Amino acid sequence: MEYRRLGKSGLQLSELSLGSWITFGKQIGNNIAEDLMKLAYDNGVNFFDNAEIYARGESEKVMGKVLKKMKWDRDSYTVSSKVFFGHRGTENTKPNQNGLSRKHIFEACHQALERFQLDYLDLFFCHRPDKNTPIEETVWTMHNLITQGKILYWGTSEWSAQEIMEAHMVAKQYSLIGPTMEQPQYNMLHRDKVEVEFDQIYKTVGLGTTIWSPLASGILTGKFNNGKNPVDSRLNMEGMDWLKDNMVNKSNISRAEKVEVIAKELGLSMPVLAIAWCLKNPNVSTVMLGASKTAQLKENFKAIAAKEKLTPDVMEAIEKALNNTPVRLMF
Ligand code: NDP
């Protein structure tokens, strides 16, 4: 396992990390969650990702119980939460129970710590931008949580480069700690932000990235190729129609089918190739994996060794197969 700096910060994260969206506290039993975390930790993973909204707080409880049971040294792993959506789901949320106001960020942080049974969070993300809260309020609150020892690094998720820069400008103006990292979606089918939009701010503010959905929720495993439709998969879970409608379409499947041919030629499985491709991007600090079974995680760890098979020629062949190189405007 390689460890990469989270942007320009001193923090080192394992190049592969483990997330818990949809799985922990929902799709899988707590025993499987424990097995996944053990397997990850034993393979060198030092970052576990979570959020207040995941399984409405249950995911953090499950993860916290495992961390407590395992008794791993607290300084040997990092753990995150994210604030914005609240832990109740939008339909049950009262004013101030979501968003990025001082009140909600403060309360979300303490509630997450309680669910995790931890004293501090290593990473704390603003899960989405909040158009109704002045950016000054959010930056001040995150800074204060750091000085109070409740969180160590703060960041954003699905913010634009401009929004991230606004946060940095406020931080600079008041000598506060700005966002260290962004959590964007990044995979072979979703590339623009990570490859083009953030290009400048990797250099200027030294942005780190913890990227999500490297397998596009399973599309890039090839299991939906050629009209297949596995019933025991995330996209066929009850209530996930919105995601399935978004992900299973002609252009995504056609790209997945073309990449599968390259994976076969290289003697790699499709998920391994897709994850190794993300790892090849030096602006990715860590690729967050999701898994519903330990066999999947074991397979996905092979991406570390597979990186060396992704030579410039192979990367070019993948580029041609994908035919979705993000456009870079040069004026
Ligand atoms: P992926 O796109 O990699 O999807 C993971 C899912 O794909 C698994 O749960 C499993 O689902 C399937 N899968 C994984 N490996 C294999 C394999 N080898 N063979 C077959 N199927 C496989 O990642 P996620 O979407 O889970 O994202 C990773 C993490 O990122 C999340 O857990 C979460 O922590 C974070 N995240 C953050 C977001 C944000 O807004 N900040 C949004 C989304 C995620 P199944 O078996 O059910 O098909």
Keywords:
single chain; 331 residues; alpha/beta; 8-stranded parallel beta sheet; two-stranded antiparallel sheet; 14 helices; globular; binds NADPH dihydro-nicotinamide-adenine-dinucleotide phosphate
Describe this structure in words.
By secondary structure, this protein is of the alpha/beta class. Helices cover 43% and strands 12% of the residues. The chain is built from 14 helices and 10 strands. The protein has helices at residues 23-27, 30-42, 58-70, 102-116, 135-147, 161-174, 192-197, 199-204, 241-247, 250-266, 270-279, 294-300, 303-306, 312-322; strands at residues 3-5, 12-14, 16-18, 47-48, 78-83, 121-126, 151-157, 181-183, 208-211, 286-289. The strands form 2 sheets. Strands 3-10-9-8-7-6-5-4 form an 8-stranded parallel sheet. Strand 5 (78-83), helix 4 (102-116) and strand 6 (121-126) form a beta-alpha-beta unit. Helix 4 (102-116) runs parallel beside helix 5 and helix 5 crosses helix 6 (161-174). The longest helix has 17 residues, at 250-266. The mean pLDDT is 97. The structure holds NADPH dihydro-nicotinamide-adenine-dinucleotide phosphate.
What would you call the structural class? Answer: alpha/beta
Q: H/E element string?
A: EEEHHEHEHEHEHEHHEHHHEHHH
Helical stretch tally: 14
Low-confidence segments, given as residue ranges, are none
How large is the share of residues in beta strands?
5-15%
Order of the strands making up the biggest sheet:
3-10-9-8-7-6-5-4
Q: Main β-sheet: number of strands, strand sense, barrel status?
A: 8 strands, parallel
Helix content, binned percent: 40-55%
CA distance, first residue to last residue: 40 Å
The outline comes out as globular
Task: Please report the total strand number as a whole number.
Answer: 10
Bound molecules: NADPH dihydro-nicotinamide-adenine-dinucleotide phosphate
What's the oligomerization state?
single chain
Mean pLDDT over all positions? 97
Rg (CA only): 19 Å
